[in-house]
Known about the structure:
There is one protein chain. 0% of the residues are buried. This protein is an all-alpha fold. The protein has one domain. The chain contains three helices and no strands. It has helices at residues 4-22, 24-138, 141-159. Helix 2 runs antiparallel to helix 3.
Amino acid sequence: MFEPEVWVAVAFAIFVAGLGYLGVHRTIIAALDKRSDRIRTELEDARRLKEEAMALLADYQRKRQEAESEAQAIIAGAKAEAERLAVEAKAKIEDFVARRTKMAETKIAQAEAQAMTDVRAAAAEAAVTAAEKILTQTAKGQVAGDLLAKGIEDVRKKLN
């Protein structure tokens, strides 16, 4: 009965009874309660932070979607503006080409008219010179001079 294990068991029982008498179990329970409260508070803080993070994430996702939709609207507006400018530029170019073509046609017509005038003047001059030579060779005297002057005057009036 006086085995060492028995004495260890008795000593342990006395030790536990002494701790119970001194109220150590209340201190341990209070410490565990404090720790439980602290863990509960930390869990509540973590839950609250998680909810705030979720709300913040939802807010950022909403803002991202708004920004994407705004970017899409800006892109659509820019495309429409580019198309409008392209149509406007095409119309201006067509108008410019039409005006340049008309100016070129007008200049060509003026050049043709000037050429016709120059040809007529040259033809008249040649006709006058030829008539003068023919009349001087065939007609003589005062009659020839009168005929020549009258013929030159008539040709000049008709050609100009």
